[in-house]
């Protein structure tokens, strides 16, 4: 499987080593800056990797006979690059958020299907051990009737973070705290609460980052089709350090609280069913020192497996769309000052500039 990575910035170090480890044939790296390519190879200890380097992804695609590309560029460029590759029959693994508009996400999904190629989205927290255990309890019906799912993402991003690159904290190329930092929490809210949502109501504000046009805090609620309620609070306004990503599930016969920086820890595991209580005995996640968690590795393994078996991919374009659709619905609700029904036919972060 001939693989290339487009975008060699901060998150690229969660891609390249796992592509190598999973047995992808890494043939090329692309970034607008050659220095970024050098830094990535040095920081991952892969300086000797025999790769071609490109600063123009179109030239790379024309010259490299690729089977798959990973896209880790700024969020605003994901859809354009993905569509260019998908239309040429190349499978795509794109970073979250997969796109910044419903229309672009739909075009990516449709093109992948037309071409019969894979479209994967890096929403890696779906593969965390903590997530998988909660999903197992849900699938066993251990919560009974689920009352509500509450998500709180309380992180810190200061001026120096936003100054790292001009795309950060803009409606055109990023979105705010909910779209960039909290999207994994929304993804898990949908996974746990039931993928089908009928209504979303949200309010956003910018309280502590006056130099940004986007939000740094958002709150609201979600109504799932079966009556389950979701509540959320997400922010990048913490002082000096991340506090937590906390997800609480409350059901008539079970309570779970996931905590830690990325909801990777289990703080509360309390069930009526002793067999489900005992599942916790096997919870022994690999240690992580990164806010990204350690599940990009699993994303790559899953992608490779789907490629070899020509089978479906769990973290596919539809999964990616559902998470960004929820964030866009919150933005739309804020703009329109009222509840918004899902599915959303159209909306984009650009719609927030009007
Ligand atoms: N899954 C996660 O947990 C996670 C974590 C962090 C970031 N991300 C996502 O990854 C993406 C990148 O984030 P980052 O922090 O690495 O950003 P970054 O700014 O550090 O890196 C982006 C890189 O892409 C390059 N680039 C931009 N346009 C390009 C183009 N047309 N061709 C080639 N290279 C191009 C830039 O030069 C830069 O080096 C974002 O969409 C972000 O939301 C995901």
Structural account:
This protein is α/β, with parallel strands linked by helices. It folds into 2 domains: 2-125 and 298-315, NAD(P)-binding Rossmann-like Domain (Rossmann fold); 126-287 and 321-341, Dihydrodipicolinate Reductase, domain 2 (2-Layer Sandwich), CATH 3.30.360.10. It is built from 12 helices and 14 strands. It is globular, with a radius of gyration of 20 Å. The model has no long low-confidence stretch (mean pLDDT 96). Nicotinamide-adenine-dinucleotide (NAD) is lined by residues 6-11, 30-33, 36, 57, 72-75, 77, 95-96, 122, 124, 165, 180, 292. Residues 6-11, 30-33, 36, 57, 72-75, 77, 95-96, 122, 124, 165, 180, 292 line the site of nicotinamide-adenine-dinucleotide.
Rg, alpha carbons: 20 Å
End-to-end CA span:
44 Å
Instruction: Give me the count of strands.
Output: 14
Number of H/I helices: 12
Number of structural domains: 2
Q: How big a fraction of the residues is strand?
A: 15-25%
Major β-sheet profile: 8 strands, mixed
Average pLDDT rating: 96
Query: What's the multimeric state?
Result: single chain
Overall body shape: globular
Order of helices and strands: EHEHEHEHEHEHEHHHEEEEEEHHHE
Q: Helix share of residues?
A: 25-40%
Tell me which CATH architecture of the largest domain applies here. 2-Layer Sandwich
CATH topology of the largest domain: Dihydrodipicolinate Reductase, domain 2
Name the bound molecules.
nicotinamide-adenine-dinucleotide
């Amino acid at each position: 499987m001939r693989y290339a990575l487009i975008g060699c910035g901060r998150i690229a170090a969660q891609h390249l080593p796992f592509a190598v480890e999973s047995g992808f044939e890494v043939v090329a790296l692309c970034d607008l800056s050659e220095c970024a390519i050098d830094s990535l190879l040095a920081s991952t200890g892969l300086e000797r990797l025999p790769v071609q380097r490109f600063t123009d992804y179109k030239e790379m695609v024309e010259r490299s006979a690729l089977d798959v590309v990973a896209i880790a560029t700024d969020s605003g460029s994901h859809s354009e690059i993905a569509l260019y590759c998908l239309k040429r029959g190349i499978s795509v693994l794109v970073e979250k958020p997969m796109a910044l508009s419903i229309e672009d996400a739909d075009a990516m999904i449709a093109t992948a299907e037309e071409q019969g190629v894979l479209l994967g989205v890096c929403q890696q927290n779906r593969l965390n051990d903590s997530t998988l255990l909660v999903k197992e309890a849900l699938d066993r019906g251990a919560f009974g009737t689920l009352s509500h799912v509450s998500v709180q993402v309380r992180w810190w991003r200061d001026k120096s973070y936003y100054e790292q690159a001009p795309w950060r904290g803009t409606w055109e190329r990023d979105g705010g705290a909910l779209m960039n930092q909290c999207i994994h929490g929304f993804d898990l809210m949908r996974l746990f609460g039931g993928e089908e949502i009928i209504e979303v109501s949200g309010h956003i504000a910018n309280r502590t980052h006056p130099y940004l046009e986007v939000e740094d805090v958002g709150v609201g609620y979600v109504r799932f089709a079966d009556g389950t309620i979701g509540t959320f609070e997400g922010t990048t306004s913490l002082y000096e350090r991340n506090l937590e990503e906390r997800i609480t599930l409350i059901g008539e016969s079970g309570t779970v609280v996931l905590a830690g920086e990325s909801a990777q820890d289990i703080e509360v595991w309390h069930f009526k069913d002793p067999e489900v209580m005992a599942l916790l005995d096997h919870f022994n996640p690999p240690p992580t020192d990164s806010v990204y968690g350690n599940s990009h590795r699993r994303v790559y393994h899953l992608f490779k497996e789907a490629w070899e078996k020509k089978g479906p991919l769990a973290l596919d374009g539809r999964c990616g769309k559902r998470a960004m659709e929820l964030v866009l619905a919150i933005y739309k609700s804020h703009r329109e000052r009222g509840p918004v029904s899902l599915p959303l036919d159209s909306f984009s972060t650009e719609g927030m500039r009007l």
